[in-house]
Amino acid sequence: MHIKYITTIILTLFFSISLIAQYSIGHRTFSYNDPNRSNREVTGEMYYPADSNGDNVDVATGNFPFICFGHGFGMAWSEYQVWWEALVAEGYILAFPTTEASIVPFPSHGEFATDMNFVIETYLSENTDSNSPFYQKLSGKNALMGHSMGGGCSYLAANSNPNLIETVITLAAADTDPSAIAAAAGINLPVLTIAGSEDCVVMAGGAPIDIYGGLTSTPYKAYIDIIGGSHCQFGIASAGSACTLGELTCFGTNPMPIADQHTQMLASAQPWLDYFLKGQCDRWADFQDHLTNNSAHNYQEEGTVEVILPTVSITENSGILSSSVSGGATFTYQWYLDGSPITGANSDIYDANSTGNGEYSLEVANEMGCIITSSSIMVSISSLEELGISGSIQIYPTLVKNELII
Length: 406
What we know:
Largest sheet: 11 strands, mixed
Radius of gyration: 26 Å
Shape: elongated
Order of helices and strands: EHEEEEHEHEHEHEHEHHHEEEEEEEEE
Helix content: 10-25%
Structural class: alpha/beta
Strand content: 25-35%
Number of strands: 19
Number of helices: 9
Distance between the termini: 78 Å
């Protein structure tokens, strides 16, 4: 295992400045019954990209990755406002199951993990239901996230149904019953584990680093220990919450300002999600830069992620658009006209005569899911055939000298 300690300081504010929010935030409350568990009711809160802020507003145009986020012990979903405000605005759907939120009776970790998977499965089903507001709104790329108890349950969920998701991110994960440390060994997905050095709740028992050590099958894993990070500040740490009341028992800790911890955790999680869920392969370099050149945390990493960015250029000849692509073995294609996808235009060549004048571009993805979009090209189609004229044209009388203006 390779451990690096970093002294170079970088400005982690680059995320909040460079990433301009694209979407408003819609909100819905959900309730579903799981027929495989005696119709167990699974409730929760959903935040999603929308054209306007509000409850039950329409989902924005597009296809969005889906993240199921597990809450901590005795904690409300509202403690994680910082996460939905940051991620939904950038084109992610976040669902927060609200089950197993009690302190007494003690929550069932196994049931909560199953609830998390059930929520993902339910919305994947809604994606194919023409009566659902989420019909054809999910990209099919999903992740599990969780804080404290919800972090441990994310490992349980990933171990039981890894085919549902692409990646796992946990925040100050706690061990669970059944054990998240034991479950970690069966996870073969990339995992990001974030912890805080001033966390007196789970760090005393070493749960995050122990779970990280148990990830023996993952192709790549990273462990980030934010220097000065506290347990509750992975959320908004509202006064009087179960988390902040629990932290009153902590003595001798010196947590960093909450805004700084939020900056650090988002600077780690956002490029990771952009890479694994959106196929924005250039964001992997951003993640690696933040990981290795940031004095605000200590880190470990193990494994490799191979990133090959495709390249694409397009040309036009008599309305026929052709592409030149490299950076992969197989590719998928989507042509765009004036920024909107053209239905059925999914090959390396496209006949623009069928759709007419406009600005055309081509989005290409390689077999690793890395996506790139070509520069746009203006196409102006004009011909005798287009004007409905056939045969020859005669112009008379021709009593002109040197120059004829029509």
